[in-house]
Structure formats: C-alpha cells, structure tokens
Amino acid sequence: MKKKSFARIIAVVSVFAALLLVLTGCGNSKKSSSESNNPSSVQQIKKNGTIRVAVFGDLPPYGWVNKDGKRVGYDVTLAHQVAKDLGVKVKFVQVNANNRVDALNSNKVDLVLANFTVTPERKQVIDFAKPYMKVSVGVVSPKNKAITKASQLQGKNVIVTKGTTAENYFTSKQPNVKLLKFDSKTQQFNALKNGRGVALADDNSYLYAWSKDNPSYTVGIKSIGPKSYIAPAVKKGNKSLLNWTNKEIDKLTKQSFFVKDYNTQLKPYFGKEVKPSDIVLPVK
Amino acid sequence: MDHSGISVLFEGTNFERLLGGLWVTVKIAAVALIVGLILGIVLGVLRTFKNRPLRVILRLYLEFFRIVPTVVLLFLFYYILPREMNFNLPGDQLATLVFALWVAAEMSDIVRGALISVPQHQRESGKAIGLNRYQLYRYVLIPQAISLEIPATINLATRVIKTTSLLMLISVMDVINIGQQIIEANNHTHPTGVFWVYGLIFLFYFLIDYPLSWWAKRLEKKRLERANG
C-alpha cells in the first residue's frame, strides 16, 4: 500500500512537471511570432477604435474615482488627451502598483499611465516613453523651526518610513543624519507632530499634499537627492506606440498641457507653496 | 475634519457604486456556483466509476484546483496564460471561469464522498432488482447522496462568495475594489471613512453569507432528525 501511494505521488509530480515544461516551451516559441502581430500598435489601436489604458483607481490626485463615480486625476486627464489625439475612445483598466508590469506583458492594456516611476529594473521588462513628471525626496518640518538646507539636518533625528526612497537616500548618502524609522505613513506623521524628530523625509509630492492639510508644517526642502521620473510605459518592443507616445509627450509639453493638468488636478491638493515647475518637466 | 466618516458612504453616488460592486460580486459567484455545481456533480459521479485512467485524470484535476491557492489560479489565468498562449478574456468572465472550475473540483469530491457513503446494501439491492448503472444512480444513489452533500455544498458556496474579494487583483470592479476607491478618495478629508466603508462591506458579506450558513445548519439538523427517527 505504501509503495503504491509513493508511485502515485511520483506520477502526480511528473505530470505537473510535464505541464510546466509545455507551458514554458510554448512561451519561448510564441515570443518570436508576437513581434509581427503586435496587438498594441498604433495602427491596431486605431483600427479597434479604443486604447486600453492602465490607471490607478485609488491614488488621488493622480488616478482616482470621485464621488460621482468618474475617473479623474493627473494621469487620467493625460489618458483622455492621448486618446483624443489618437482619435480613439479610451478604456480604463484599474491596476495596483504591483500588477502594472503584468498588465502590459499579458496584453491586458496598451499603455500604462499609473504614476509609474522609471527604474533600471523596470526598464528591463517594459519600455518607458519620455517622462511627464518628476518626483524626488522632500523634507517637511514645522514652520516655526523650518529646515531649508540639508546641513541643518546633520546629527539630528529625521523621521522616515521603512522601504521608501527617502530612507534609502539618507542611509546611503547622508550618514550623519540620524534616522527614526516607522512602518506606516500614519505613524511617521504622528511622530513628527509629537516632536520626535526635527523633520520628516518622504516623496515630495506626498508631503505637499500632507502639508496642505497641516498648515503649521512646510516642505522646507522640496527636492534632495536624485530625481525620479514618471513616464508612460508600453510593452517591451512595442516600437510603434512608444515612438508615437514620445512625440505626443513632446507636443503636450510644448503646449504646456502638463501645466494646465497640474493646475486642474494637482494644485487643489498641493497648496500654494508648490509651483507647477516643482512637478512638471520643462520644455527642452 | 471633525464630522464623522459615515458621511463618506452617502456622498455623491458612493452608496450606489458600492451596491453596483456588490452586484458584480454576487453575479460572478452565482454564475460560477451554478456552472460549477452542475459540472461538479457530473465529475463526482464519474469519479465513482471503476475506470482507472478516468479516475486518475479527475483526481489530478481536483488536486490541482485544491492545492493551488485561488490567488495563484487567478494570476495564472489572467496574466500568465494570455502571455504564453493566445487566450484572452475580460477579467469578470475569466474570474467566473476560474471560480466555476474551482467549484467543480471541490464539488466533485463532495459528490464522490456522498455517493460512496450511501450504504453498500443499497447499491447491492439496486443491482439485485436488475437496475442498470444509469437507473442505479438516478433512483438509488443520487437521491440518497443529495441530502448528505447539501450542507457541504452550502459551505462551499459561502467560501466562494468570500473568496471573490480576491478579484480586485485582476482588475475586476467588485465591492472591495470600489470600497478601496472610495476610501482613498476621501482619506485626506475623512480619515475614519475606512472603518465605515469596510464596515458596510462586512455587513454586505454577512447578509449574503449568513442566511446560507443558517440554511445549511437547518438542513443538517433535519437530516439528523430523519436519520435517527
């Protein structure tokens, strides 16, 4: 009896292994053929009459749903403009931060406009078009003891959230700054309010929005460390849509579309201290 | 900021949108259950046959859907299969398909278990009066198995309804996904909105699932009363 069940286990395992081989094998053979019939090329999108765009549904003010059930935000406005310039309708597919790459690679969407930060790791699996926004680490501090220079932080306690670019930057580039690390956004802001550190570092756009709701604090250092860029993304190798999107971003930048987009979508969240040039890229 | 987060639920079309999301949830669960139960009964009957290759295949099917977590199944069908082979379905249809296959797998085991737990003398008596295989199942085994399998089936149904909360991973606009949208849209102005939105979703799930589990309990009790006279 024992022997029999052991044999059965081997049979089950081998069947699964065979299945896996078949699946991966198919994958390799398909890859070469998929370049010829690209379902997300500009031609194909125009033929279908719709462009499928991945956006966030829960990240105000970039991509979210307002109380009337309408999709709005900085990215969503851009998506509408892109569709208008292509002469097609737009179909939104809501994604999370961690399925943006999969959505592209499995042909669920043609274009990702979901606050997608350009990183070297992501560049290996998808193609980014030209960026339309910049973000970097900012530092927020109480207005009456405002921190405006990195030198003011030396030897002081700075509050960060674990795993953020802010933590990364201070750990590697500013070793003289003492870090107080927290697990969540709520914790870190409470710590700042309780005076546990002289300042708090996080993504600047996030801090702009927070300091607007907490007027006794100010984003004294708007940008510190390396800048990151937010760009549209297409499936790796989709040259047709990539080139078109690059031209589109250039054209929209020249028309100062992004400044207008900033003024309607982001400004109400960020408050007066922030200028469009803190977020929007200049015309080259 | 001092007004309570409950107002989030009734702002604009928020409440209707949550109900719309609930409808998506219920629709996917209901269609998947109907299709899955029918398919599962057929597979369950087939699994009691003596044909060995058939049993091995169906057993593999069951183990695959039972062992692989539903999250992985959804990812596999939604992201990986379309990439490897040209198989592309919208999220909600795909979710219905995956859930139906899963229900069928679980159901086949419930049905098989119920069929073989019908006392042996019933089967033998049926054969003795000259019933063929179809008649044996139709008039003797299945009617007696049904009362045995109903509680487990209802239990499966409540599990399916709860598991639809994973659908937000594959971009289906179910009640959880809509709830998330509403929470994030109001987080700056109503930080306590999250409790109300999730509270309402909890209530929705409870209202759907509790009657089912109450029904299962009642049927079970009835069955025991009947069995013990």
UniProtKB/TrEMBL annotation, chain A:
Pfam assignment, any one: SBP_bac_3
Entry's transmembrane regions: none
SUPFAM superfamilies associated with the record: Periplasmic binding protein-like II (SSF53850)
GO annotation, cellular component aspect: membrane
Key word Iron present: no
Domain Ionotropic glutamate receptor C-terminal span(s) in chain numbering: 50-259
Keyword Ribonucleoprotein: no
Stored InterPro entries: Iontro_rcpt_C (IPR001320), Solute-binding_3/MltF_N (IPR001638)
Residue ranges occupied by any Solute-binding protein family 3/N-terminal domain in the UniProt entry: 50-273
PANTHER family: ARGININE-BINDING EXTRACELLULAR PROTEIN ARTP (PTHR35936:SF17), MEMBRANE-BOUND LYTIC MUREIN TRANSGLYCOSYLASE F (PTHR35936)
Descriptive protein name: Amino acid ABC transporter periplasmic protein
Organism phylogeny: Bacteria, Bacillati, Bacillota, Bacilli, Lactobacillales
Automatic annotation (TrEMBL), chain B:
Topological category with respect to the lipid bilayer: Multi-pass membrane protein
Family: Belongs to the binding-protein-dependent transport system permease family.
Highest taxon above the source species: Bacteria
Keyword annotations of the record: Cell membrane, Membrane, Transmembrane, Transmembrane helix, Transport
Gene3D superfamilies: MetI-like
Domain ABC transmembrane type-1: 22-213
Gene Ontology cellular-component terms listed: ATP-binding cassette (ABC) transporter complex
Biological processes, Gene Ontology terms: amino acid transport
SUPFAM superfamilies tied to this protein: MetI-like
Keyword Iron-sulfur: no
Example of a GO MF term: transmembrane transporter activity
The protein's name: Polar amino acid ABC transporter inner membrane subunit
Transmembrane segment boundaries: 20-46, 58-81, 93-115, 195-216
Coiled-coil stretches: none
A UniProt-annotated Pfam family: BPD_transp_1
Species assigned in the record: Lentilactobacillus otakiensis DSM 19908 = JCM 15040
Location within or outside the cell: Cell membrane
